[in-house]
Amino acid sequence: MTDSRSPRTVSRFLMSPTVPALVTACTVVGLGVAAMMRPDAEPLPAHEPVVEPAAVVAEAEDTTAKLVPEHEVPLTLGRSAEEVAVYINRAYRVPMAEARQYTQWAIEIGGAQDIDPLLILAVVGTESSFKPAAKSRVGAEGLMQVMTKVHHDKFAAFGGPAAALEAYPNMVVGTSILAGLVKRTGSVAKGLKWYSGAARHKSDYGYGAKVLKERSRLAVAASGESDRAVTLSRSKKSTGDYRAHGERPHLGYTQWTSISDTLEANGAAQTPEADAAGAVKTVSGKDARGKAAAL
């Protein structure tokens, strides 16, 4: 057996055609390194860009998208929705991006299930103060404090009961339960009573009034007066019409469109004299904001 390190083996290797090519390659690399180390060296020519296969690019883009939290995706809200988000941000100390996302979801879900988005948000605020991970001792979970064990089947479309602690699935399921109870009982107040778990009790211990008061503050914000709504919240006051809303057989999506459309119309009707800071058109010596506050 011939030792691979014998003189004959080495001689054969040196005489093979591989050696000149190897020497040339090493020389080129050495010259390139030396050129980069010279202070006056010219930059090396750039290589042609490598075109990645479409599948690889698509996979990379998909991975990047998953790394961006959904609530950080900028939203473009209308004036009413933006005012509502501002109120939630300030009254509940919720990050603005999340406040916008909750508001947008409430509008989408309310439109799909024909229920007032402000009522949805009022229940969220009353039940969990906009904390998605909220849990109660009796098993209620999430933003709208859904009894997951009772309504576990309703989360099947979202992957199972664990989704109850995710904001969007919880709002969808909670709203469907609330809408069903309002329809079944024949009034918003009775539906809220059942939603609170007091169906067999003589009263709901003030739950319905609390939700409707919060809904009235959200309506003030949606009308373009988020500052006033925050003041009402901090003083634990509300507008006087919340009881009338409780007596209604239903608070549908048109409640929201009526408020938001009115605000948009008022904004479009501003006179050229309104300043850049957003001054509103004056009516009989009082501005429109002051007039709304007096109602």
Keywords:
two-stranded antiparallel sheet, two-stranded antiparallel ribbon, 4 strands, mainly alpha
Secondary-structure map with pairings?
Layout: H1 7-15, H2 18-37, H3 54-67, H4 79-92, H5 96-113, H6 117-128, E1 140-141, E2 146-147, H7 167-185, H8 188-195, H9 207-222, H10 226-234, H11 242-247, H12 254-268, E3 282-283, E4 286-287, H13 288-294
Antiparallel strand pairs: 1-2, 3-4
Helix pairs in contact: 4-5, 4-9, 4-10, 5-6, 5-7, 6-9, 7-8, 8-9, 9-10
What report would you give on this structure?
The protein is built from 13 helices and four strands. With 295 residues, it is mostly helical. The strands form two sheets. The protein has a two-stranded antiparallel sheet. Mean pLDDT is 77; it is low at 1-15, 21-73 and 271-295. It is globular.
Rg is 33 Å
Report helical residue fraction: 55-70%
Question: Which of globular, elongated, flat, extended, rod-shaped describes the shape?
Answer: globular
Q: Biggest β-sheet, characterized?
A: 2 strands, antiparallel
Uncertain spans: 1-15, 21-73, 271-295
Tally of extended strands? 4
SSE string, helices as H and strands as E: HHHHHHEEHHHHHHEEH
Provide mean pLDDT, rounded: 77
The main sheet orders its strands as 1-2
